[in-house]
Amino acid sequence: MEEIQVRPLQEAEYPLWDNLVEISPYGTIFHKSQWVFSATNQPWVNTEILGAFRQDKLIGGCAIHSYKMAGLFILITTAFPLTPYGGIVIQPHESSKVREREKMEVLIINALINALYQRNPSFIDLTMSPHVIDIRPYTWQKWQEIVRYCYIYRLSDHIFENISKNARRSINRANKFGITTKKKWDKNIYWTLTLDTYEKQGKKPPFSQKMLFSLMDIIKENNWGEMWIAETPTGEAVSGEIFIWDNKMAYRWSAASREQFLNTGATSLLLYDIMTYLWDKGFKQFNLMAANTPHLSKFIASFNPDLVPYFSVRNFRGLFKIIKDLHSIVH
């Protein structure tokens, strides 16, 4: 079998990468070149896409962000705020035989891992999409695994009947309050809702307005998603959602709401109307995210989605590993 070569992609090769993301069983919108280079856009972060080639054909790769911590440790990651998934993508398998498929995947993953090691990192964190179920190539190399969860809703034409009674009551309550929903793209309204959402938790958003707006611009320019809001009868925006999509599913990328209107059921009505809209557009699955945060999990679970695991894998190296191991012993 021919040797696999790994190197950073040039900008002219990004269309090749985006095509690989489209056809790969592991690719998501969060792997797209425009997304990964806009997701950080910070001078202290170096973003690159590593391509795995065989006979000059791109067969796999990984978009990574690297930066220094304390001026000493090099950290490599695939996930930043507003980018939940990343990790290695691989071309569709040519063989129907399990042994051949697994052999090729391991070769590609190992080649990319070795390329990461050559950057002398102290810490590597790769967060996969829910499409990735096999992380053995990493655990076989003694990487640490972390299990996370998301909620994926299987869309149908019987959404209202399939959700819980509590969710239906919230939707009916919103209708009684005269809440309406509509498609509306307004970055300033959404930022105001975002600030209110985090303020009620006593927190600041984990991302800047600039970062949010940059990704919103890319979503709109590429028709990768929509923003919807719920309004009172007087036209006051009380809840907002931005949902995006790729060729595999839709994603509830971001949600925000005003605390004083939570008892109106506006957020439930908004989510229900979006789910109905996505079904009408032909989507079969809607990733509702939110399963790793207790208060969000409680709300999303009322819509009766499927709980689906996804994985992060981590590798600690050198002095960083020694410090981590000592910390584990002490605690």
Describe the secondary structure blueprint for this structure:
Layout: E1 5-8, H1 14-23, H2 33-38, E2 46-54, E3 57-69, E4 73-77, E5 88-90, H3 98-117, E6 123-127, H4 136-139, E7 144-154, H5 159-162, H6 165-176, E8 180-183, H7 187-199, H8 209-221, E9 225-231, E10 237-245, E11 250-257, H9 266-280, E12 285-289, H10 294-301, E13 306-316, H11 318-330
Parallel strand pairs: 4-6, 11-12
Antiparallel strand pairs: 1-2, 2-3, 3-4, 3-5, 6-13, 7-12, 7-13, 8-9, 9-10, 10-11
Helix pairs in contact: 6-9
Rg from Cα: 21 Å
Helix content: 25-40%
Summarize the biggest pleated sheet. 13 strands, mixed
What count of helical segments does DSSP give? 11
Mean pLDDT: 92
Percent strand equals: 25-35%
Description:
With 331 residues, this protein is of the alpha+beta class. 36% of the residues lie in helices and 28% in strands. The protein is built from 11 helices and 13 strands. Strands 1, 2, 3, 4, 5, 6, 7, 8, 9, 10, 11, 12 and 13 form a 13-stranded mixed sheet that branches.
